[in-house]
């Protein structure tokens, strides 16, 4: 009987295990199925489009304004602009069109920023150069410091066709010939981004003609869903290195005489060609939500196919387009009636537009209860070829975010195919609110390659943010703003960009801006810290940085490179320090649990060792020691660690604690006995040996400390002595963090410049790094007496002098959220192979000629208006 019972028990246990394993397996299957169906979020964008467009905001202004991006041929690419033109189509070697959508600053590039020398930059296809800049901007637009992705599995997927950049050059510069191959082949474009940014995920460049950008997006979606990468940088680029496409299509008489695409319009008379670069950053939607990203839009589905053996290699094929659309809808698990807007390919050729419109009618249904809105970004920009799909994608993302149907130009007279559709297709002739349907806003984008490749992508409005609420204005708490640039000019330009951004978007919290500057932007050698206590003071400091002048509450580094960090702990200053320490402790106990915990441990240990805990002097010295120890520990927790420490008097005990030679509690007992006139040595039976740092005594250390600290670690030197001066000299201009009472006396660092300390530069004054080599800079470990946070100003000053604080830890307990900020202020110079220098001289650093060409739109040598048609 026992055997039977035992067997039944074993059987039940076995069945439980099997059932549990089965449930786990089913859960894993569901998880994998969700992974493969997981939508993808667009979280960042960077771009260059005709019309002076250098950001998504610029693109939206162009799309909703009265002008387009069509201008005369560029004069900085070595083209024989006058000799190329002949008004008669078909003239060999000539073009009857001399306008298009051009990036007139495509020759400009910040080579130094990316660590590329001038010789290599000159040999690089400008498409590669612009992809580097817009790739960086797309990551910054996602509110991510690009350097934090180094070593990650981020993938790069690019669409790009080879351009004949430099092909007609008779002789290459001798110092650049070695870069000819990597500068010109398309495969290097993606590899260069991965290499430069340190990405280790999939990396590929593809050429599917005008479908390239959206095909790259399709492959990136698959890679994300297969977990080949966690983020994907997806982009496409076209910069016409010569005028060959104009010559070929002029021979075919297939271009609009005014260079403008009149997409789906009765006025359509041919294509118009354009440059353009667009990059987006993608993340799995579930990860984006979990990571608290700002989601711009959601990619719900996509499909790619080919025309197959149709009626011609380059001829559009309507049935293939229909199949592609239905496949994309199935991938998105949506019905045709759930799509509100289609961003068509719409090149402006009557035959191609008619085939596309008929395919849309067939796939999306002629019996809709509401119209399918139709448009094409090419009516504003021209046809940017390999980047065409990326231009349409960005337009749709912006439209979904703004809840607005952006207009297509020339839509007042729809083409016959659109006109005779029974209300199913309707061109967007003027900007209008997105129709309310009770569902998320949804749109689709098409792109067709001349080789027969078709691609259709379906996007959806971003979900409402969950679990995030706007941070309140900090009010009485100052939050420093930190800026940096790779060069002094870049730092000034960065300040100018932020000033313009503040004027354009004035409602953001001071705290959120400070948090975002610290946590979402890379740090470079030239730095500034703005310490103003309110928005007006911070803005005034920003203007000073932009102008390159000194101002109150601005600390700016004048040299590159990091300084060794020294923690300095002074002697207790008596009654003069008592109130300052009490105020600081009261503030930091509320602000920082880490500070409060260590401070209370020290207080408890000291009180337990004293017979008379009510002695005011003893209590004050214990408070000072505990505050110094806890404050230094707080700096360490914020990522600032010393190479050495120095101490004087009571500060000697705090210094020993800071390097781990004395336990905080033992140090507190020593401070209590010292304050009561007793022997501090009785409180610390041993001082631990440590290799964490060297430390120095500025006064006569106790016999205990001198006798027990291992040789080579502690060196006694009277304050102001030659020995102490030599100690500081060996650190070659250290950054000294002074842990004295806020507003108290300085430490007397030999040759040092004190910032924000009494006896040195007054708190609130502008500060620059001393010009003389080896000069120390002394900054306070905490500031009180104003309405701001006591710790952040010191960390910001340390940042200005080369330290790398852990800002996330520093803002713990303060709060803040990521907000949009201007992207990096690239300092561009001109690079172009085969161009006579007289045609396009090097631009000075920071030069950008977009404004010049924006003002030349009306002067473009082309028939037709530039205002809205």
From TrEMBL:
GO terms for biological process: fatty acid biosynthetic process; macrolide biosynthetic process. Residues 37-461 form the Ketosynthase family 3 (KS3) domain. CDD domains: PKS. Residues 832-869 are annotated as: Disordered. This is Polyketide synthase. Keywords: Acyltransferase, Coiled coil, Multifunctional enzyme, Phosphopantetheine, Phosphoprotein, Transferase. Its cofactor is pantetheine 4'-phosphate. The keyword Acyltransferase applies. Residues 15-42 form a coiled coil. It comes from Streptomyces chrestomyceticus JCM 4735. InterPro entries: Ac_transferase_dom_sf (IPR001227), Acyl_transferase_dom (IPR014043), Acyl_Trfase/lysoPLipase (IPR016035), Ketoacyl_synth_AS (IPR018201), Ketoacyl_synth_C (IPR014031), Ketoacyl_synth_N (IPR014030), NorB/c/GfsB-D-like_docking (IPR015083), PKS_assoc (IPR032821). Residues 834-856 have a biased composition (Basic and acidic residues). Pfam families: Acyl_transf_1 (PF00698), Docking (PF08990), KAsynt_C_assoc (PF16197), ketoacyl-synt (PF00109), Ketoacyl-synt_C (PF02801). GO terms for molecular function: 3-oxoacyl-[acyl-carrier-protein] synthase activity; fatty acid synthase activity; phosphopantetheine binding.
